[in-house]
Amino acid sequence: MSQEIALQVNNLRVSYRAGEQAIPAVNDVSFSLYAGERLGIVGESGSGKTTLALALMRLHKPPAYILGGEAILGDGKDIMTLDREAMRQTRWSRLSLIPQGSMNSLNPVVKVKHQMADAIEAHERGWTRAHINKRISELLGRVGLPDSVAEMFPHELSGGMKQRVCIALAIVLEPSVIIADEPTSALDVVVQRVVMQTLNEVQQQLNAAMIIIGHDMGLMAQSADRLAVMYAGKMVEVSPIRSFFHDPQHPYSQLLISSLPSPEEQRELAGIPGSQPSLLELPSGCAFHPRCPVAEDRCKVDIPQLRFVRADRRVACHLVEEQPA
Ligand code: SF4
Question: pTM for the whole thing?
């Protein structure tokens, strides 16, 4: 994995307006994304993952608004400060999104080739029909679909094929950053693996960096190079994938791992006690303290910062000490 940064997010904050109140959905999130790497982001629903994805694309809608922070692409441009036209040019060409439930966004009664041609023509004006058709054929090939799919209607395709069309649409302009929000949800387990494999291959061919948002730890283990865990709008652990699974540091990560079935040992599923707090009434101090099995008094008062505990690991917990390399 290269150390060239494809996207640097600094102190990003996104809130929802509710009357006089600002509800923090993404709360001071910072992370680096390296060229060619796959960063998984996991968390329970409502932890801020999708809001983060939409804000990075500047596709969030009111009442969500960006309160502050930066998201700097490899070319030095800060997505958060781009004007409308610059953002239009950047979106899909520098970073693209495979949104949650994207396969349902395909128009079922418009042939795949027309939907793909629309996406190409929106950015590549002046291309001839032959040029566009050639590009459609290339894109379908990249996601493992035959040319004949171009002539089909989405309602004639299986869920896995539709999702691969959506991946093809996301890479029309060969972006350097791909954000895939729950790319395999609503697919059966076997198809999930195939779609994920296609996504990984496409990402490698383009040498793009990819953010994979999801909650399936198995798929993350298979695909991600690093994993970031979100809880109540904050990142609480960012770690290389192997270290995460072998030695999770944050108490929430430890509970996530212990709730997974293990093929090697017969172990009772632990589950995580309690539920994620409402963003309207976040607990004081560490937002995880009401559920944390090892919380101390200071956890109710002091907010733990996400800090390096090793050169390649960051954790937001008062109890996690710095570790020797
Ligand atoms: Fe638990 Fe305290 Fe660490 Fe939060 S800071 S995860 S409450 S030990």
Answer: 0.93
